Structure formats: C-alpha cells, structure tokens
Amino acid sequence: MKSPARRVTTLDLAAAKRDGRPITMVTAYDWPTGRLVDAAGVDCVLVGDSVAMVVAGRSSTIPATLEQMIYHGEIVARAASRALVVVDLPFPLQHLGVRTAVESCARILKETGCQAVKLEGTAGQADVIAGIAAAGIPVMGHVGLRPQAVHQLGGYRMQRDVEHLMADARAAADAGACAVVLECIPREIARQITAAIAAPTIGIGAGPDCDGQVLVLHDLVGLSLDHVPKFVRAYADTKTAIADGLARWRADVEARLFPGQSETLG
Ligand code: KIV
Q1: Ligand 1 centre and the CA of 215: distance in Å?
Q2: Residues lining ligand 1, CB < 6 A?
Q3: Of 43, 148, 152, 252, which has the fewest CB atoms closer than 10 Å, so is most exposed?
Q4: Which is catalytic among the residues 67, 120, 183, 254?
Q5: Spatial contact of 224 and 241, defined as CB atoms under 8 Å apart
Q6: Nearest CA to ligand 1 atom 7
C-alpha cells in the first residue's frame, strides 16, 4: 500500500484491503534492521518469535520468551518511526486463558511501545483474540502453518484442510483481529479466505492473492544461514557481502595495509 508520512495504523490496513492496495510486512529484531525496514517504506515491522531461529540459532520458535520478545520489541519500536510495529506473543501464552494473554499483551504494549501484537492459534483461541481486542490492544491472528505447533503438525509443512483453515481465519477475524497471517497454505484456499473474511490477510507461502505479504528479513536479504523455505525469493545476497567484507579486511590486516596512517586516529 502507499504508506502515509505518519505512523501506519490498523485503520490503514483495513483501508488497504478495501481499496485493493497490497500490504507489506517484514520482520526486524534490532536497531539496524528496524531502522532499515522502516526506511524502506514497509507498512508493518514484525518482531517475530522467529528471532529464536534466525538470530539465536534455535531449531524452532518455541524457546522464545516474553522477556526476549519485550527486549527485541522495545528496540525495534524505537527504531521504527513510521511502520506499524507488531510483536509476537510467544508460546504458550495464548493457551493459558484470556487473562494471562491480555496481561502478557498489555506488558508487550506498555514495555515496548509497539502498536499491535500477533498470536498463533486456531478457532479455539477466538475468545483470547476477543479479550485482547476488547482491552484496546490491536491483535493479528496467525493461522495455517503455526510454527509454535510444529511438533503437533508433524513439521514445517503445507496445511491443506480447507474447512479448518477457513474456520480458524473466520474465527480470528470475527473475534476482532486487525489482520490475519496465513502461513503455508495453498493459493486457492488463501484466495477463498481473503475473499471471505473482513480482516486483511497477510500471506507467507500462501500465494499472491492475499491482501498483503510478510517475510522473515533474513530470508528476504539472503542472510539466513540454515533452512530457507522453498517459497522464499532472496532479493539480496547479504551473506556473501558480509563474507567478502570480512575476507578483504582480514587480508588487509594480515598484509599490514589496515589501518593506514591517516586512519589511525579515527
Ligand atoms: O515469527 C515470524 O517471523 C512470523 C512470520 C513468519 C509471519 O510469525
């Protein structure tokens, strides 16, 4: 969508769906990535619990804690002056009842300065989304492949049960979600859900017919060191750029070419 000069709001996301303007969302986890994603004009910056994988090198998002999400969320919320900043609710706080979920989301909002939270769930978490929304906290749903449920789902695989997917997305939207992330579902099902629900859909591995797209920054810029999902297209080769820079600096130091005389005092 054509982002406004002021901070993007959830009303802008709703208007983008109405007007057919694609929404962009990318993850960020720290000061430089928050600044860069914001400066790129991306609509929403997601402080995803993917931080546990791409930054901390864990094998799933399950280890991410509330304290870690608040730590990273606070940095990114300060770094991004224009994008809507969304912070993930980490496992298992959306499964411990409405009160715990509202308390956790309120901590995220108060202690990070972000503008919205996101939680993974099925129709079973509709009451939790409704409770968070009723507390005045903008909340995004996340259905389809739910990485926090990777062990129950049998791996990071495409989700194809159209009835359940439709019910989960509808429940999130009807409960007051300001947007619903659709992860790893067939294009046709994503298209049907997008047409059926009032909230904007933001797809990842769900085809081009969603109201918007989200990607993990490290995948997008070629900085992911481990598994990269098949649907990802890297738009930069940051890994090679860093490796090249390091190799050239090391060679210069070993050849006593760095620092030069004029560079010693900074
Ligand atoms: O944690 C994350 O980065 C996410 C995106 C993959 C949508 O939830």
Answers
A1: 7
A2: 27, 46, 48-50, 61, 88, 142, 181, 204, 214, 216
A3: 152
A4: 183
A5: no
A6: 214
Structure tokens at 258: 């760095």
Burial 104-141 (b: 16+ CB within 10 A, else e): bbeebbebbebbbbbbbbbbebbebbbbbbeeebbbbb
The burial class, CB within 10 Å (0-12 / 13-18 / 19+), for 207 is: middle
Q: What pLDDT, on a 0 to 100 scale, did the predictor assign at position 151?
A: 97
CATH 3.20.20.60 at 10-235, yes or no: yes
- Tell me the C-alpha distance between 16 and 26, whole Å: 17
pLDDT digits (tens, 9 = 90+) for 82-91: 999 999 999 9
Q: How confident is the model at residue 226 (pLDDT cuts 50, 70, 90)?
A: confident
Nearest to 101 by CA among 82, 88, 83: 88
- For 35, the enclosing helix (H) or strand (E) is helix 31-39
Token pair, residue 120, equals 């993974």
Distance 231 CA to ligand 1 centre (A): 14
Q: What digits encode the pLDDT tens for the residues 145-204?
A: 999 999 999 999 999 999 999 999 999 999 999 999 999 999 999 999 999 999 999 999
Q: Is-contact 89 105, C-beta < 8 A? A: yes
- Are the CB atoms for 211 and 202 separated by under 8 Å? yes
User: Quick one: which atom of ligand 1 is closest to the CA of 54?
Assistant: 3
Domain locations in the chain as residue ranges: 10-235, 237-266
Instruction: Examine the residue annotation and report whether 183 is marked as an active-site residue of this protein.
Output: yes
Q: Give the closest residue (by CA) to ligand 1 atom 8.
A: 48
CA of 116 to the centre of ligand 1 (A): 14
